[in-house]
Each structure stands twice: as C-alpha cells, then as structure tokens.
Amino acid sequence: MVCLVHQNEWRSVWVKTLAKLNKNVLINISYHGTKFHGYAVQNDYETVQSKLQDALAWIYESKIYVNASGRTDKGVHAINQYISFYIDDRISLEKLREILNRYGQNKWYIKWIKEVDRNFHARFSAKAKTYLYLIDYCANNPLFYDHAWIVNFQLDFNLIEKAIPILEGTHNFWSFSTADKDKGLRTINKINLKQEDNKVYIYITGDGFLRSMVRMIVGALYNIGIKKYDLNHLKWLLDNPKKGRAITKAPASGLYLYEVYYE
User: Which residue of 15, 63, 72, 151 could cross-link 39, Cys pair, CB 3.0 to 4.6 Å?
Assistant: First the structure.
C-alpha cells in the first residue's frame, strides 16, 4: 500500500485527533532497507513511515503521525529503530504488535511496544546513536549484495586504526555530508573496528549525524585503507569543511542503524 497523503496533511489531522489519543507508546522495530524507499513519507513511494501510518490509520480509524529516532535513506537497514506515537486503549499493546507485524509482510519486525511518558519523543529524547557499517570481502553469494559493501581486495587496517582517533571527538563534519547548510558540528564518541573472517564491522557512535555523514566517514576510511589519500588529508577535510568535500560515499546497502540511546 502506497501512502499518497502529504506529510503536512498528516500533521494537521494528527493535531486535531491528539486530544483523543491518551497513550504515548514506543516501538522497537527492525527493517530491511531495500524493501522501502527510505524511512520518511514520500508521495508515490512506500516508506517505513507511510506503511506504519497506513497500518495505524486502518487499526484506529484515525490518522496517526509517528516520530522516529531518525530518518534512514533508501537501502539503509535498521537493527534497532525506535518510533513513538499516540494511540487510544481499544486494543492491548501486545495485540497491536501482532497486527503491525502481520501488516509488515516480513518487511519489518517489531520486537516490542511499551507505554512511555507523554512527553517522550523518539527523536528529541535520544541522547546518542550507534551505526554499524558492514564491509564484505569477495562475497560470491548474491544474497549478501543488499546487506554489505562488497570489495575485492584487502584494506590496510593499520592505517585505518591510525585514522580513527582523528575522526573521534567534536568537529565540523560538513565535508562528510551532503547537507546544503553548514551545521556540521557533531561529536563522534567512539569508532570501533572489528574483523571477522571476510567481514569488517565498523561501529560509529555519536550524539547526532548529518545527512550521509556515516557513509562518507566510511568512504574516507576506505580511501585511507587503499592509500588513496593520507592522514593529513583526513585532517584537512575536518579543518576545511565544505559540503561533500570527502567525495566518496559508501553504498547504502552496508549501513545499519544499530542502536539508539535514551536516558
């Protein structure tokens, strides 16, 4: 089912019906990014938000607006996405979870649903997020193509390890973003690198991320690993922020929203 209702129409109806909805709930949901045209509502395309709002409108006979911890682009997966919205008491939370999972048609899975404080907001209450990026060497199975960045040669991990501390901390990351405006000041708390068999797992935790920021950071680490540019160039990108200056953006297929942290 494709949502053809404009986002602003959803908001206006939601404001009118909010007084009738007495329960603020939070869901933990995972989804396959290639099954959707991103998270946010887009006319003529099925997205996570549009499908979820369609499901809730069908269940509650009222337009319900949902708020996610953050948007994911087309092809980006979620292991732990969090979405909050208001409902009434007509069905139990466990029954709601069962119905929504059936409605998802194996495109998503809702692990749990719980009531939260009325002032809780999945996006604005979040304190930090972790993204996982997966690189796979020489994957011959086409089933992996939508789940990782497939590369055909080894990266220099000693160089990548040296690059990580340069990126950690508070910097202007506009060079690592496709955002039009320079609002690039963000804090990367930690970048963890793990190798297992033919796979590389990159975990990036921060207080917030710009558009395409994680994918462009991974692209920069990749360029360091293949010796396309050196550590001084990485420092220069941070010291001289400009939209998209890092250039290389890792494919969406390898990116996962791994976890969101709340107080």
Answer: 72
The answer to whether 148 and 199 have CB atoms below 8 angstroms apart is yes
Rounded alpha-carbon distances, angstroms, from residue 86 to 26, 81, 260 = 9, 17, 20
User: pTM of the full predicted structure?
Assistant: 0.90
What 3-state class would DSSP assign to 218? helix
Q: For residue 145, what are the domain limits?
A: 126-262
Residues 54, 73, 89, 182: which is the catalytic one?
A: 73
What value does the mean pLDDT of the chain take?
91
The verdict on residue 2 lying in a domain is no
Q: Which residues contact 49 (CB under 8 A, 6 or more apart)?
A: 3, 39, 40, 41, 66, 68
* Domain contains 154: yes
* Conformational region of residue 237, where left means phi above 0, alpha means psi within -120 to 50, and beta covers everything else: alpha
Told to judge if 207 belongs to the known catalytic residues of this protein, a careful annotator would answer: no
Residues 237 and 215 in one domain: yes
Beta-ladder partners of 13: none
**Torsion angle defined by CA atoms of residues 127, 214, 252 and 228, in that order, rounded to the nearest 10 degrees:** -170
**Is 109 annotated as contributing to ligand binding?**
no
Task: Render pLDDT for 7-23 as a digit per residue (tens, 0 to 9).
Answer: 565 555 545 555 578 89
